[in-house]
Amino acid sequence: EVLMLLVLMYPLLRGLALHLHSAVTGSYIPGTHSIAFVNCLNEQIARDIARAIMDKKLAAYVNILPKSSALYFWKGELEESTEILLLVKTRTSKIGELSNYVRSIHPFEMPEIISLPIDQGNPLYLKWIEENVPRD
């Protein structure tokens, strides 16, 4: 029973240990920040969505990548199109709110909004993200 309790509590204890270690050493906790990917039909929509994200302070930085080709299945058919991709740098804790907001303003029926945690990076840059995206 004790072993089972320890196994169940491991993620919580590990999280607490990481936060304590980070507080003491000033090191980065992997996954505290994320990069979200948002696809857009054209550059104007991409700019409008990027600006809306920034106006709501849901990100510290948004890259608007140039047009690229895309292949995907939609309603059983293989489709080919072009799209603009946003790379959104934010706190991981903001991903849910970011996703809900983008879905509410995005013209696509089902926009791509996916994210990946940032494992490591320039500590000053990661701190800058933190300073520019308010806590929940």
UniProtKB/TrEMBL annotation:
Source organism, top-level taxon: Eukaryota
Family in the record: Belongs to the CutA family.
Name the UniProt record assigns to this protein: CUTA protein
Pfam families, per database record: CutA1 (PF03091)
One GO-annotated biological process of the protein: response to metal ion
MF-aspect GO terms: copper ion binding
Description of how the protein assembles with itself and partners: Homotrimer.
Signal peptide: 1-17
Gene: Cuta
InterPro entries in the cross-refs: Ion_tolerance_CutA, N-reg_PII-like_a/b, N-reg_PII/ATP_PRibTrfase_C
Keywords annotated in UniProt: Signal
